[in-house]
Amino acid sequence: PFLFYIICEYDSAGYHFAGYYSKEKRCVQGYNLSCIMILPSKQREGYGKLLIEFSYLLSKKEGVPGSPEKPLSDFGLLSYRSYWRRAIYEILLAMHADSTSPAISTDELSRQTGMTVDDIISTLQTDGMLQRPESSSASYSISVDIDKISDYVDKARQKNPRRIDPTKLMWAPYLTKATFGAVSNAAAAATGVTNGVSNSVQSSPAADDDEASAGELSV
Question: What pLDDT sits at residue 179?
Answer without folding.
Answer: 52
